[in-house]
């Protein structure tokens, strides 16, 4: 796409949510809407937006941070009474075909995490909220 130095291609360097959003747009994938959260503690204030995103049929939310370098994908939100809230977190490094959902949970690849402990309060986070709608129409094969 031209946004990285020539040595990036073929390297083992990682991209973040901003670059992932640019790739989705460039290659005609699902639309990615970015949301910057200055501190992990501020994620509590984004829960309604995330809930609406998923309730409206939105796709996975890619999550990247600075001090918290463990990438995550959010698959759902559960809002409880008061400030109690959970996010369904998928480790994007998961690979292979599990026999069943319990296998994924037992291996720690996916699970519900309390928002107050799932994110580093001092790290910033970029969220890329994906939608099923693509901005670009891919060419059809006739």
TrEMBL record:
<dbReference type="Pfam" id="PF07910">
    <property type="entry name" value="Peptidase_C78"/>
</dbReference>
<dbReference type="GO" id="GO:0071567">
    <property type="term" value="F:deUFMylase activity"/>
</dbReference>
<keyword id="KW-0378">Hydrolase</keyword>
<keyword id="KW-0645">Protease</keyword>
<feature type="domain" description="UFSP1/2/DUB catalytic">
    <location>
        <begin position="5"/>
        <end position="128"/>
    </location>
</feature>
<dbReference type="InterPro" id="IPR012462">
    <property type="entry name" value="UFSP1/2_DUB_cat"/>
</dbReference>
<dbReference type="GO" id="GO:0006508">
    <property type="term" value="P:proteolysis"/>
</dbReference>
<protein>
    <submittedName>
        <fullName>Inactive Ufm1-specific protease 1</fullName>
    </submittedName>
</protein>
<comment type="similarity">
    <text>Belongs to the peptidase C78 family.</text>
</comment>
């Amino acid at each position: 796409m031209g946004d990285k130095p020539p040595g990036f291609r073929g390297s083992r360097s990682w991209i973040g949510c901003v670059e992932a959003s640019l790739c989705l747009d460039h290659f005609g994938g699902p639309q990615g809407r970015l949301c910057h959260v200055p501190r992990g503690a501020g994620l509590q204030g984004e829960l309604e937006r995330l809930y609406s995103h998923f309730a409206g049929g939105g796709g996975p939310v890619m999550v990247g941070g600075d001090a918290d370098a463990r990438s995550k994908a959010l698959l759902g939100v559960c809002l409880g009474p008061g400030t109690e809230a959970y996010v369904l977190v998928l480790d994007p490094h998961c690979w292979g075909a599990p026999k069943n959902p319990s296998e994924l949970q037992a291996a720690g690849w996916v699970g519900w995490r309390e928002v107050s402990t799932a994110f580093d309060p001092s790290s910033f986070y970029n969220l890329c909220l994906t939608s099923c709608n693509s901005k670009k129409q891919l060419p059809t094969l006739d």
